[in-house]
Automatic annotation (TrEMBL):
Lineage: Eukaryota, Fungi, Dikarya, Ascomycota, Pezizomycotina
SUPFAM superfamilies the UniProt entry points to: L domain-like (SSF52058)
Example of a GO biological process term: fungal-type cell wall organization
Keyword Signal: yes
Record carries keyword Signal: yes
Superkingdom per UniProt: Eukaryota
Protein name, entry field: GPI-anchored cell wall organization protein Ecm33
Gene source species: Microthyrium microscopicum
Amino acid sequence: MMFSSKFFGAVLAIASVAHAADSGCSSSSTLQIQNQGDTSSLQGCTTYTGNVQIASQTSGIITLNGVTEIDGDFVVDGATNMSSLAAPSLQTITGKFTLNNLQTLSSLSMPKLTSVGDLTFAGLPNLASLGFDGIVKQCKTLNIQNTFLSSLNGINLQTVNSVTIANNRMLQTLMFQVTSVPQSIILLANGDQFDASFPNLETASNITFRSCKSLSIPSLKNVTGNLGFYENSFATLDCANLTSVGQTLAINANPSLTEIDLPILKTIGGGFQVQNNTKLDNATFPAVQTIGGALDFYGGFNTVGLPALKDCRGGFNLQSSGSVDCTPFNNEKGPNSVIKGTFKCYNKVSNPGNAASTPSGGNGTTTKGAAALLSVPSNTMLMSMAGILAGLMIMM
């Protein structure tokens, strides 16, 4: 078959254009975008390999056309006059996606984005919604703080290593489908009606829930690190499937809390705190067997129950302004007993406090820990014992 020189010329021209486009789609240095004109270098790229940064002096509207993947970081930091950011075709950012300190940004549109390496949004006082119509399902680290977002519609994570959602005063709902979070979950100081739901979450390393109106974690089985509930406004804490906490479990300063349901929790590797929950009358944990650290409860309890407790390796502090019964615990203290450390149990205290406090009024007992119980006889006692032995020897 014969090919004309024109045909070969056309093929060479196409190859040349493709090579030129490909060579512009990768860079070891950061691609800086200062205005809309600078985005033209991305239009011929399906995948851009390298980091992309929108400069702080950028203003107005920026649209990244054409590119479907940024194999690197995409960072916008300090562009206080940029009002709109769009990437109509962008599906994946393999590295960091950071929007930080963008005071006038009010529109974000990335309708096909589904996967991000690390997503950090902070200091976005005019951004009310996310334009992630394709739903971001994969993210290694999610960190959203100090924004005007009223919802996280567009993010429904199925895999994530850590989650921090904090100080988003308009944010009222959050639901993620993750089953495991290897690092941490931190939710704090969001909207006053903040409703958090993790219906499938079974295990996590460290969890902090603070200032939640309602909380749903029905599948949670195991927390390998710390688990804390602070200053929430829900009435019931329900962790029906939780069996173990690797370090400290803290349930503190939840003013509306009237019921704690932890029916099969057996092991707490560190300390166990239930403190200053002003409406909580009954703190009963029917299955708890082991507390690796100290127990430190104070509040207005009338009932505290730990019927399965076999080993409390640290101190024991229970102070209540109510009529809690200390008798069951008095019978379990001592170096070879269930409660090993310093023991303090008081009821009808006027101002109950933590282990470091001294009860004011009320009825109760303080006993030093195991080490303090091992005393050395005085010289006088030793001399008396020697005299008794000498007398016995003379009589023999």
